[in-house]
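Narrative summary of target 7.
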Amino acid sequence: MKLRQLFESKKHGAAIIFGRFNPPHFGHSNAWTVASHFPIWYVGTNQSTQGPKDPLPFEVKVEAMKTIMPGIADHLVAEQSWWTLATMVYKKHGGDMVLHVVTDPTDKEIFVPQLQKYNGSEGPHGFYQFQDIVWAPATRDSTATALRAAVANDNPQAFSKAAGIDANTMIAGQPFFELVKHYMTPYLHASAEKERQKAEKERQKAEKETAKAAKKTKTVDPIPEDNSIKKTNQIVREMRAHQFIKEGGTQPIHGHHKAAIKNATTFPSMNQSTGSAYLGYRLGIALAGAPDYPTKQEADNWIGGDPLLSPYTDEENEMINAAAKQVGGGKRQTWSNNRSLETADTNKTSAVAKIKKNKYGV
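Modeled conformation, tokenized:
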């Protein structure tokens, strides 16, 4: 089409733009403005579609579109598609003109060829026949997806940026952000529930697969019943304890710590790992009154904070000796022999009274 013909087509042509516009934003209004430069122009939007991607009902959506671009009111029509919109324009204004399809470059590749394909052909949409059908470029400056995402994230600032108007702009008696949030909430809850059910199904599936795999896994043979405790203890002793015990020693105090801490003092004998934690506990009690009011403490008992080991077999006794030697346990103190005895003051008289017999010996 020559330049002169292009200007003539714009002067005497018509422009259409179709979309869900749910919710509408400044990118839509920019495209509507492109259409408004033609003497005949219409903005079509679907009337019956409503769902997660179309939260606003038709009447509410129309009010939002009018708020964003007041001049759209007399050019807004309810249609089902680009093709029904083209059919409406043809019926109302005839086909002696060029029809301009206002859309972005991406949608142009889809809708312009399809509208041209049915030019002069009857279809489910009806019939239209224009002199020509051409593309009128528009840019995609924002997306309704961004607005819906801002609502889902409860972010009015992001909503304002994507909408091109303040989130508190009143539409249908409510701030724009709250209005969209009101109609989106049921869909958000439904989506969350769907995700929860999906996760639950995946969990149950994983449990079934785990149980199925467990059945196929060969179980470890149990220790034969004729094996004695001595044999079991021998197996334990053969485990190389040094594979899981690491002795790192003690590092000197760091220079920064030394400079920052005044009179840094420790008692290795009270080390939590290698000393007596119990002795450290008693030191804490003594510090409460030191030095003027010494805290009275009973003498440490025989066990104090020491570990108590009570082997019942010679094998267990050997285990203790070997492990203590490995970690440098020091001198061993044995407080009782290898027998469990009753002391002399142990009560040996039953607390149950003897049975009394009657005169018949019963």
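The chain is about 45% helix and 10% strand.
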